[in-house]
Amino acid sequence: MINDKQMLQFIMKNAEMGCRGINDVKHYSNTAEISKALRAQNEEYGNIYHNAFSMLRNIGAKSSHVNPFVASMAKAKARHDLRGDSSDSYIAEMMIQGNVMGVRKIAQHIRQYGGSNKSVMGLADKLMSTQQANIEEMKSFL
Prior knowledge:
Ferritin; mainly alpha; elongated
């Protein structure tokens, strides 16, 4: 089982990774439509990140961030992958893959958490539903 602090730290990192992933690909986008979708998704991840940060602060816990090495490796991979194909379809495919990984990880954490705090559980559910909606939205660009 994981506690409130661990769950909130995970939510914060997951949302941070979503923001980083979007920021890594958004300047490669070729159309206003996908750019708009990416901006909206980035804003939603930002809201989740800030909510997790506030909840951590309220319980007197410190926030933790994505490992800088992991973040730089993800950025380098995105840059490398987009050199060969920067079409909106490929960007959407990359975003879908990232969101699928995020859904898988938050689902695992939800199972380990057990949902003892309704606010924390609500934020975890919000993150998962956001990622699922992002997947559906990106499918339209394939």
